[in-house]
């Protein structure tokens, strides 16, 4: 599996330094997962983002300004859980130096949190429970991905990626930027369609399956 992913990384991400190994294509999958999760949080959990903190902070401002379609409590809950997840990710980064092992632990933990969120949605708990679980996972993801520092593959933020596509001439970075934007869009579309037609728990299922697959794909590299 790992040699195949390594070849895929070399072909699809020619401008990415080789020491990132199998991580670039796996980070594209995480970008897709982010689109799915934010689609569920926005459409199914009360107009709140759990991955996009820029949008979440703006929503908090709108809610405090009097927009009754938005919830200040939900935005604060998501922000606090995201902060806690990022803090936990920061501790993990200090303890695990091997990048692929660090990534594998991140994805495994994130899969557990998404599974718990699916259970909470299926059980009909308060929406703040899945909000907190999903935001916790996204905060953890952001802290670890920030440490890995693979160019143009932050998995959650596309503003600088789109800016690079527009401002820079086409070059080695173009394929990974296009794939990052396409993955986020595809994830949001998939999550949106499933949430609207089938509900939160079903919409989160692809995210869980992909996280499990990514963790398994990364395991061989984490043992080196």
Task: Explain this structure.
The chain has 224 residues and is mostly helical. It has one domain: Growth Hormone, Chain: A, CATH 1.20.1250. It contains 9 helices and no strands. Helix 2 packs antiparallel against helix 9 (200-222) and helix 5 (99-123) packs antiparallel against helix 9 (200-222). The mean pLDDT is 90.
Work out the radius of gyration: 17 Å
- SSE class: mainly alpha
- The assembly state of the depicted protein chains is single chain
Strand content: under 5%
Number of helices: 9
Summed up, the domain count is 1
User: Order of SSEs, N→C?
Assistant: HHHHHHHHH
Summarize the structure in short.
This protein is 77% helix and 0% strand. The chain has 224 residues and is mostly helical.
Throw out a few tags for this protein:
224 residues; mainly alpha; Growth Hormone, Chain: A; 9 helices; globular
Element layout with pairings:
Blueprint: H1 2-12, H2 23-44, H3 53-65, H4 72-95, H5 99-123, H6 128-148, H7 159-167, H8 174-198, H9 200-222
Helix pairs in contact: 1-2, 2-6, 2-8, 2-9, 3-4, 4-6, 5-6, 5-9, 7-8, 8-9
